[in-house]
Automatic annotation (TrEMBL):
This is Methyltransferase. The keyword Transferase applies. Keywords: Methyltransferase, Transferase. Residues 23-123 form the Methyltransferase type domain.
Length: 234
């Protein structure tokens, strides 16, 4: 879903065929970075975890030389982008699944916005702090659901204590760092309770169509497990 939503935003903002300069902060094993490199873009990935970097390099090594040449991997903290790159160096900056691990995300976000060229796109994927009661509630964990209404803290599926973000708060933050919210989507509206490693259903295309529609439609997107926010640098 995130890939579809991101492609929609890129197509609506940049000329067809333009080779974009992409920064993927917290690139993990490089799923989005490699996908965008295959599409012809120049991608720089920043990742702190050596295991994730090793996995990304292993995946990259399987790609043709032309794609390998379009990907650069930098080991570092996403909060230190100013150390590695000049302001305005990128057309697109991704920060997916990172903010939940950062106690004070505003400095990170401000740094990411500075990396964008004018008109550049900032793509954030965060846990939805307005819908934390949905997962325990749908699982019948009534005590957990009640507790989730009054907090943005939660324990993720890895057993880590992390945090969520509210749409209103991030909207204000993006406006304050000169990358105001342009569009937002819900991700995992109906599928958040699926267990990890669940078998892909035979009707997966229908499932994706439903999730894609719900992710753009009120009120469904408001209760999604994740929010995908897209800001544009002024």
């Amino acid at each position: 879903m995130v890939a579809r939503q991101l492609d929609e935003q890129i197509a609506g903002r940049f000329p067809v065929g333009q080779r974009l300069r992409v920064l993927d902060v917290g690139m993990g094993q490089g799923t989005q970075a490699l996908r965008l490199a295959r599409a012809g873009h120049q991608v720089t990935g920043v990742e702190q975890d050596p295991k994730m970097i090793a996995a990304a390099r292993e995946e990259l090594a399987r790609e043709p030389e032309g794609i390998r040449e379009r990907v650069r991997i930098v080991q570092g903290d996403g909060r230190d982008t100013g150390v590695h790159f000049l302001p305005g160096s990128f057309d697109v900056v991704l920060c997916h699944g990172v903010l939940m691990y950062i106690e004070e995300p505003d400095p990170l976000l401000a740094g990411l916005a500075r990396m964008l060229a004018p008109g550049g796109l900032l793509s954030l994927l965060v846990r939805n702090g307005d819908a934390l009661a949905m997962r325990p509630g749908l699982a019948g964990d009534w005590a957990g659901a009640l507790a989730a209404f009054d907090t943005t803290a939660y324990r993720n599926r890895l057993g880590l204590d992390v945090r969520a973000d509210r749409l209103t708060d991030l909207t204000a933050t993006l406006a304050g760092i000169a990358a105001p919210l342009h569009a937002w989507y819900g991700v995992r509206v109906f599928t958040d309770t699926a267990v990890d490693g669940a078998e892909i259903p035979a009707d997966v295309e229908a499932l994706l169509a439903v999730e894609e529609r719900a992710g753009k439609t009120d009120p469904y997107r408001s209760v999604a497990a994740l929010l995908h926010l897209c800001g544009v640098r002024g």
